[in-house]
């Protein structure tokens, strides 16, 4: 069934698509790139379908082809990530000029097509030497990240007008350090909290380093989910409040208010926390929101689910995750709840008021198989309508990046989950635009025809 046209978004609204280095680039050791923690994780057999992460989608060699696909969409911007181990193979020390050369070429290619480069400096691929030294559990990693950020900005700031420091620190903390489902595979539960604090510190230090190197328009991408209590009882409401704190406000509050939301959690954090918070709360130009679905949370339960499909929660945690009953699920098993995006954006405005900078939706998308991916079209259409409603309710949202431009390596799930507007044949690396690509192209074209663009 054909959907009616989307309502008109505000003048200058930015339309984009996103990707990340580890998930797409491949060329594992090309031109001096060092290994990342994710490369080591894959080498230990932790990618469930055995996908070739060293090859990925071949973006390193085929970036011009993918930029042409972006141009075909009419996209205003491309959110990609810079591989830290490609630029600084040791995590600290000498900069690999050949690694920076690749991003120089990519930025030039984007600019030649009138597409705004929007690089993310950390999208989970920690240089392996730093991972082996403790990764984000170590305070030093934050300072090494700021050095790397400055090196990238010194090369690219003359052409890059929009910067993202870190992506989804909550997922890195929860899945990488607390539960061990992602690299580096640690299972520390609440002892993982230093990883959260050090990522936030790295962000603040990087904002300062970027600005010192001439960069402007800086934000970050934080995953957020509305958290719903599974029941009316105190155990369920208490479990939901705690999960909401550690999944949402543990990150947003220090970034936007300079305080942690819970004194007991803050007491578990290392270092001069008060001094660090002043750095973490370095003013942002904008704040990025990654949204996929809400979370239904109650008290502890033997039948609790994971943070994402297939990720088990230890029974000793003081909360448990439950199934959201919905008629539609993605191929990943995630519930489809478009109004959760509106609810989330409105809740951010209500919580932070004048402290909330302009927002961008830096990720939103879904996993569905097939070239005639009408369920993806329905998903994106419904979420864009929910986003428009949030804007109507007074939330200042300046742009939307769909995840993702092409199918890619979905971390520990490998090639089994397809989020792209463009299909990747993992045998030949042939790119084939899906029905959703053509739909998004038409959406962008219609929006630009009804509203003036700032580009």
Spell out the blueprint of helices and strands.
Elements: E1 14-18, H1 21-24, H2 37-43, H3 59-73, E2 77-81, H4 84-87, H5 97-112, E3 116-122, H6 128-132, H7 140-156, E4 163-167, H8 169-178, H9 193-212, E5 218-223, E6 227-229, H10 234-257, H11 263-266, H12 273-280, E7 287-290, E8 295-298, E9 320-322, H13 339-352, E10 359-363, H14 374-392, E11 397-403, E12 422-424, E13 431-433, H15 435-450
Parallel strand pairs: 1-2, 1-11, 2-3, 3-4, 4-5, 5-7, 6-8, 7-10, 10-11
Antiparallel strand pairs: 8-9, 12-13
Helix pairs in contact: 3-5, 7-9, 8-9, 9-12, 13-14
Shape from CA axes? globular
CATH architecture: Alpha-Beta Barrel
Strand content: 5-15%
So how many helices? 15
One letter per element, helices H and strands E, the order comes to EHHHEHHEHHEHHEEHHHEEEHEHEEEH
DSSP strand count: 13
Overall number of domains? 1
Q: Quick one: CATH superfamily? A: Glycosidases
EC number: 3.2.1.21
Family: Belongs to the glycosyl hydrolase 1 family.
InterPro entries: GH, GH_1_N_CS, Glyco_hydro_1, Glyco_hydro_1_beta-glucosidase
Enzyme class: hydrolase
From the structure above, extract its key features.
455 residues; alpha/beta; eight-stranded parallel barrel; three-stranded mixed sheet; 13 strands; hydrolase; Glyco_hydro_1; glycosidase; cellulose degradation
């Amino acid at each position: 069934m054909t959907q009616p046209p989307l309502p008109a978004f505000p003048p200058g609204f930015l339309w984009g698509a996103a990707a990340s280095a580890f998930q797409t680039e491949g060329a594992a050791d090309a031109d001096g790139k060092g290994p990342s923690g994710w490369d080591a994780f894959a080498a230990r057999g932790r990618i469930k379908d055995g996908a070739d992460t060293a090859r990925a989608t071949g973006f390193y060699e085929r970036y011009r082809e993918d930029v042409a696909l972006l141009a075909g969409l009419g996209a205003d911007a491309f959110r990609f990530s810079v591989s830290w181990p490609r630029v600084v193979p040791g995590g600290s020390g000498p900069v690999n000029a050949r690694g920076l050369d690749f991003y120089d070429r990519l930025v030039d290619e984007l600019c030649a097509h009138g597409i705004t480069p929007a690089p993310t400096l950390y999208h989970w691929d920690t240089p392996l030497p730093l991972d082996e030294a403790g990764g984000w559990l170590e305070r030093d990693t934050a300072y090494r990240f700021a050095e790397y950020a400055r090196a990238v900005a010194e090369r690219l700031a003359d052409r890059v007008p929009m910067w993202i420091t870190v992506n989804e620190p909550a997922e890195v903390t929860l899945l990488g350090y607390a539960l061990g489902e992602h690299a580096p595979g640690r299972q520390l539960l609440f002892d993982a909290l230093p990883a959260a604090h050090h990522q936030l510190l790295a962000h603040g230090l990087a904002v300062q380093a970027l600005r010192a190197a001439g960069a402007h328009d800086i934000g970050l991408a934080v995953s957020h989910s509305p958290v719903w209590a599974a029941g009316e009882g105190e155990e369920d409401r208490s479990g939901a409040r705690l999960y909401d704190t550690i999944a949402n406000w543990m990150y947003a509050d220090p970034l936007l208010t300079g305080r942690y939301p819970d004194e007991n959690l803050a007491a578990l954090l290392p270092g001069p926390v008060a001094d660090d918070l002043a750095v973490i709360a370095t003013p942002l130009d904008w704040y990025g929101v990654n949204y996929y679905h809400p979370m239904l949370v109650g008290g502890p339960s033997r039948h609790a689910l994971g943070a994402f499909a297939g990720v088990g929660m230890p029974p000793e945690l003081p909360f448990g995750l439950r199934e959201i009953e919905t008629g539609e699920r993605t191929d990943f098993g995630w519930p489809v709840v478009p109004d959760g995006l509106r609810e989330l954006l409105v809740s951010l405005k209500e919580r932070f008021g004048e402290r909330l900078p302009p927002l961008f939706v830096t990720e939103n998308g879904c996993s569905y198989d097939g070239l005639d991916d009408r369920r993806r079209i329905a998903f994106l259409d419904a979420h864009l309508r929910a986003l428009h409603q949030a804007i109507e309710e007074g939330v200042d949202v300046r742009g939307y990046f769909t995840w993702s431009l092409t199918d890619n390596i979905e971390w520990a799930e490998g090639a089994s989950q397809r989020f792209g507007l463009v299909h990747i044949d993992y045998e030949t690396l042939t790119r084939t635009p899906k029905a959703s690509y053509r739909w998004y192209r038409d959406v962008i074209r219609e929006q630009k025809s009804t509203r003036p663009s700032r580009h």
